[in-house]
Structures are given as C-alpha cells and as structure tokens.
Please model this.
Amino acid sequence: MKKAVRFLAVTIGVYVLVCGIVALAYKAFLFPAPHRVAVTPNGSKIIEAGSAKALRFGPDDAPTTIVFFHGNGELADDGASLAQRFVSQGWAVYLAEYPGYGMSAGAGGPSEKRIYEDAEAIIRAANVTNDHLVLMGFSLGTGVATEMATRGHGRALVLLAPYTSIPAVAQKHTPMFPMGLLMRDRFDTLSKAPSVVLPVFVAHGDQDEVVPFEMGETVAHAFPKGQFEAISGASHMTMFERDPKLLAKIIDFVITTTPL
Model:
C-alpha cells in the first residue's frame, strides 16, 4: 500500500511539474514567429504607429480599407498577394504585424494584450471611419479581428479558420493537460461573438488539421449576423485553393456590407 501511495504521489508530482513547464513554455508554440527577414512587397509601404507596424497597400482615397491580421506562423508580408487582390478593387489594405514578429521583431515578445494594443494602434493610424473599415483575420488573427470589433471598430468582419478560443484549440491537441488553466493568452472569440453586431463572414475548411472545423461553425452561429461558408476538402492553409470562388465571395460580402 505504501509503495502504491508513493508511486501515486510521485506520478502526481511529475504531472504537476510538467503542467508548470507547459504553462511557462506554451508561448513558443502559440507564437512561432518565422525566423526570416521581413520584406516590403512592391506596392506597399511601412506604416508605424508607436511600436506597432503594418504594411499598407492601395490608394490614399480608397472607399474601403481592410485591416488584416495574419496567422501565428506567418509575417505580415505573407498576406501581400491577398492584399493585391483587394487593391485591384480600388481598396486600401493594412497588413498588421504582431510584436515580436517580422518588422516588429525588436518590439519585445508577443502576448494577447500587446497584440491587441498594436492592432488598435494600426486601426487608429488607418484614420478611416467605421463605415469604410473592414476587419479581417486568419487563424490566430481571427481572435484579434474579433476583439477589435468588440472595441467598436469596423463595419464588417471576415474570419478565415476561426476558433472558439486558443485554450480550446490547445486542448484538442494536448488533451492530457488542462490548457484552460495553463494558458494566460485566451483570444476567447466565442464569448465575444454575441456582442458583435457587425455582419460577419466566416469560412472554414472541413479538413482543417489545426483549428477544428466545428469551431468555425460554432463561432459563425454565435454571431448575431454571422454567415458560414464551409470549404469542402480544404485544410488549414488551402481554403483559397480548394474554393477558387472564395475570394469573390469575400469581395461580394464586403461590397454589400460597406458603402461605396
């Protein structure tokens, strides 16, 4: 009996220790900033708002401005080709960077709070009224875009591969640990969705291996004005490839929800 109790105590102690390590180390997995030099794509310029930085594309007098928030394993310049497609509509696009990433690599490490602060600084720097502002995010960036909407920014919201919350995603991948207790960065989109009264376009691949498809569907239905687009056969990174009409659907959504 004593051996059994001792074994149980050691097992619990090791588990608690590992949980502590996870709580300290999860940021390296949540914010895996690519180790490459950020570039300034043709047709763009760097916008600075305090410590926040973004790439800006498009005309100064654009009728619609999109502020885009990228995924956790990307840099702002990864969205250049998408930005150019929106510029062809006559729109302006800001590709926001995260602290600790790319252009903002020297700005200290990322956190939920700091990402929100920089995101809001970029929105202020865009200097457009809400009637002409669209918020857009992919993966990690969907939580950032949603938070900006809850703060009163934007006329419409576009979310690609959104999650209910970051701890919920982590729990799916590491069910042996109580990720809801261990992670301080929450990005809790599901709890915020009911308060977002903007029109919301949500797209999610039904073969997403990173963010479960059902999370996107759940989030879409939680928004009062949410609409959901299931992309058949698409993984986390292949929505546009699997549905060649997805970009046109997003453009149509933006046109119908923002004034000319």
In short: The chain has a mean pLDDT of 93. DSSP finds ten helices and eight strands in the chain. Residues 2-257 form a domain with the Rossmann fold fold (CATH 3.40.50.1820). The chain has one domain: 2-257.
